[in-house]
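ok here's MotA/TolQ/ExbB proton channel family protein:
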Amino acid sequence: MLNTLLQNTQEGAELLTDEVPVQKTLSIIELISSGGVAGQFIIALLFLMLVGAIYIYFERMFAIKAASQIDGNFMNQIKDHVSHGKIDSAQILCAQVNSPVSRLIGKGISRIGKPLADINTAIENAGRLEVYGLEKNVSVLATISGAAPMIGFLGTVIGMILSIFEIANSGGQIDIKLLADGLYTAMTTTVAGLIVGIVAYMAFNHLVVKTDKVVYQMEANSLEFLDHLNEPT
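and the structure:
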């Protein structure tokens, strides 16, 4: 009787073991590889856009950081040279300092002797060129931040169309696994598009803030230079 009880216990344990569902792991690589040519193309395009956005962000960050670095004593030296009539020395100092501020001041120094309005206009025109240089390729980040989610959604629509097509050709027998795999693949492109769009959007806004700080620095130093020229001698 004891043997019979042990045997029944083992059979019950085996039945419980058989009934335990096997948990399926979710692999991003498998989803991408099973997405067909269209899904793989969209994922590859989004990956290239992500790489481009990261490259532009760091390249602009280094450029903006270099543009914002200027000696705190620079303007004092410029005003001292101008006050003593050492225009050539002031121009040499501006040429030695590679920054947007020094180039603006150098443009203003080259116009000394002309009306103050002409000097101001020359500095403003040079300032526009400097701002254009600082914002180089930043608009691409804005384009990526808007286009990436739409491209991801395009992949979702394509994946759902393909899934519906497969179901329509299944002879009325709906394969839940086939439907689930298609939806997984469709959602993968949406997630990828949103990730790329969020990264590009955050990078764009951060660069805009950094650029605005440099522009403010340029404006402040330009006004300081113009005020010095306008001081009575």
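+1. Residues 36-230 form one domain.
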